Amino acid sequence: MFLAGVVVSQIPIVSAIPYGDDRINFEHKRTVYEDLSAFFNGHDGSFVLYDLQKAQYHIYNKEKSTLRISPNSTYKIYNALFALESGVITRQQTSMKWNGKTYPYKTWNQNQNLFTAMENSVTWYFQMLDKKIQMKNISKHI
Description:
This protein is mainly α. It has helices at residues 2-16, 37-40, 62-65, 74-86, 114-120, 123-133, 135-141; strands at residues 31-33, 47-51, 56-60. The chain is built from 7 helices and 3 strands, in the order H-E-H-E-E-H-H-H-H-H.
């Protein structure tokens, strides 16, 4: 009786194992797989583009494209675009003064502009952009 109880109690765990959410399913009739390897120059990566008008995915490297990973610094690209769009920075004026706080990376401990902030992934620069853009405007952009 005890053994049956242990086995039955494990069914939800066992049934959940094959259905991890670490992958996205692109098995759709409107998915187009493309060979874009010439653009990757031997780098191991993927590309996914969703065409809103055709309701169609264009995918390179199916195996890599379905793996869920953290976006990490990719938000910084959107953050910069939002700041430009909202006028927080302009093409001519992207500089920000360093606040004097010591950060873990030497390149962060100085004044920054959009180019240096992107090149060195300077978190404080993008956090300042977020503050200047304001959450309600960021939400509209997203």
